[in-house]
Amino acid sequence: MDFESVFQSNRTVANILKDQFAAQQKLLKRVGKSMEIGDMRAALRDLAALDALSSETKDSLSILSAGVQGVNVADFLESGDFAKQLVSFCGEKGIDIAGEGTSYEVFPYRLKIDPQNEEVLVNGRKSPGIRPLAMAERLEAGRAKLLSENFNAENFATELAAAYDFAIIANAKGKTPVPDADIYLATIYKIMTPMRRFRKDYDMQSYAFDIARLFDSEEKNAKDGRKCQFGPSRNNNKAIRVLDKFGNEHFLALVRFYNE
Predict the structure, then answer these.
(1) Phi-psi bin for 123: left (phi > 0), alpha (psi -120 to 50), beta?
(2) CA dihedral 10, 15, 19, 24 (to 10 degrees)
(3) Which three-class secondary structure state does DSSP give residue 224?
(4) Measured between alpha carbons, how far is 126 from 184 in angstroms, rounded to an integer?
(5) 103: which strand partners?
(6) Do 242 and 231 form a contact (C-beta atoms < 8 A)?
(7) Neighbours of 127 (CB within 10 A)
(8) Contact between residue 139 and residue 152 where contact means Cβ atoms under 8 Å apart
(9) 105 vs 73, 99, 108, 117, CA distance in Å?
(10) How far apart are CA 135 and CA 138, in angstroms?
(11) Is the peptide bond before 128 cis (omega within 30 degrees of 0)?
(12) pLDDT tens digits, the chain, 260 residues: what are they?
């Protein structure tokens, strides 16, 4: 199913309905004015026209209703049509999208297609609609808004360093800690969000977006002067996919703080 074709067809009928409703309002006002002065012939004439128009309006409503009811959301999502159209619109707009099947990513958003419940989840939350073009535009606008927000690289690096230090001590298990060892970013996230309600307010995608902005920053120093360095890992399951400011893809897994 081509959702845009369905949308355009329904919008055409909706515009006809809008004109019909406007004409009904106009006729109703004329009946009122005729009754006000006692022009019964004019009132009856306009009432007859209003009755005929009401029948046409009912037909238009039936067509519109049939168009909406004809959309099988579960089939649209399960068939792959939704995903194909979303990927196509993202491509037209230059929006980076990766994934296959029922899972996609438009950094920093993760999409999960759920045909059984007839919904699409964006970062774990139900999307308000399933029109591919509208979703692509909404994700693009959301990303632009996030990028426009102020980001204090030093403050985030300092918070990251505090969690990093805790991980260094925990990983030592009573032995002498290695102060500048590589630590998985996923481990740092768990330390920064120890409780489920914290992860709800600050999910992994929000964390990944902050990591990406710190990765893009020229200065990556914590307040104590230590520098932050990111790196990949052979264990790609623990890597976080980010896009830099030029739209290039990176898979970051490790972080370390060190003094020069």
Answers:
(1) left
(2) 40
(3) coil
(4) 30
(5) 100, 112
(6) no
(7) 19
(8) no
(9) 21, 6, 7, 20
(10) 5
(11) no
(12) 999 999 999 999 999 999 999 999 999 999 999 999 999 999 999 999 999 999 999 999 999 999 999 999 999 999 999 999 999 999 998 899 999 999 999 999 999 999 999 999 999 899 999 999 999 999 999 888 888 888 999 999 999 999 999 999 988 887 888 888 999 999 999 999 988 888 888 989 999 999 999 999 988 899 999 999 999 988 778 899 998 888 889 999 999 999 98
- How is residue 246 written in tokens? 């030029």
Record the tokens describing residue 231, joined without a space: 């790196």
Q: Which residues of 79-102 are buried (b: 16+ CB within 10 A; e: fewer)?
A: eeebbebbbebbeeeebebebeeb
Phi, psi for 13 (deg, rounded to 5) = -65, -40
- Which amino acid appears at position 131 of this protein? R
